[in-house]
Amino acid sequence: MRSYFIAGNWKMHKTVAESVALAKELKDKLGSCKEKVLVAPAFTALAAVAEVLKGSSIMLGAQNMGPEEQGAHTGEVSVLMLKDLGVKAVILGHSERRHSYLESDELVNKKVLLALKHGLEPILCVGETLEEREGGKLEAVVGTQVKKGLAGVSAADLAKVTIAYEPVWAIGTGKTATPEDADAVHAFIRKEVAGLYGDAAAKALCIQYGGSVKADNAALLMGKPNIDGALVGGASLKAETFVPIASFR
Ligand code: PEP
Q1: Prediction pTM value
Q2: Marked catalytic residue, from 35, 94, 121, 192
Q3: Which residue, 53, 107, 137, 231, shows the most beta carbons closer than 10 Å to its own?
Q4: How far apart are CA 221 and CA 148, in angstroms?
């Protein structure tokens, strides 16, 4: 049976104690969840949450990482440090990183390749702004982010990559793309990936939708053929809102 990939991005929220409390609740409530579930706490809480999640099927993710293995990079956290804590996946190229911290496709790609080199699963985020969508540039923007983000990724490594389609105008705004609109963009992403890696690899690729996913729209979104999961921000901060999304079926 198809399993969906539901990831919670806790962003810059929660102290260590608050993160541990939420992780404990999720571990209890999602013990028998059919889906692949991941939580991405802040760097400061990774070690403590890793400890809580031991023995659970909930995966530990990070929200970002530095583009180098190690060295003089003040303030960065490296792939080796994440692995050391038990992190299995890393969110890369989130629109907040692209827009607030000016991360380029080239930088995001460098991180994707580094994550794969060290066996971390990258979640490569792509998505257009409202201005780009209204200006008819959706496919050009998303297509470029996909192609540049995946540059140099081998066919074998593609199987470890998840793409998260997150229209920037839907993140944290309460506005969600309609399931039909989101599915159409996912189909476009799959077509781009098919052009690079072939139909079978594109079909197998996991493409999450992100942007104001809530319990009441999760089933409709994931009912669409090209939507393989969800990357959840705001609704991942409480068990009462995240558990129903991860248990949408
Ligand atoms: C996100 O930050 O990736 C996100 C989708 O946020 P929200 O669910 O709050 O829109």
Answers
A1: 0.97
A2: 94
A3: 231
A4: 27
Domain count, the chain: 1
- What's the CATH number where 50 sits? 3.20.20.70
The single residue of 128, 166, 186, 192 carrying the catalytic annotation is: 166
| Average pLDDT over all residues of the chain | 97
Q: Whose CA is nearest to atom 2 of ligand 1?
A: 233
* Confidence at residue 172, expressed as pLDDT on a 0 to 100 scale: 84
Q: Which domain holds residue 70?
A: 5-246
Ligand 1 first shell, C-beta below 6 A: 9, 166, 171-172, 210-213, 231-235
pLDDT in tens, 37-92: 999 999 999 999 999 999 999 999 999 999 999 999 999 999 999 999 999 999 99
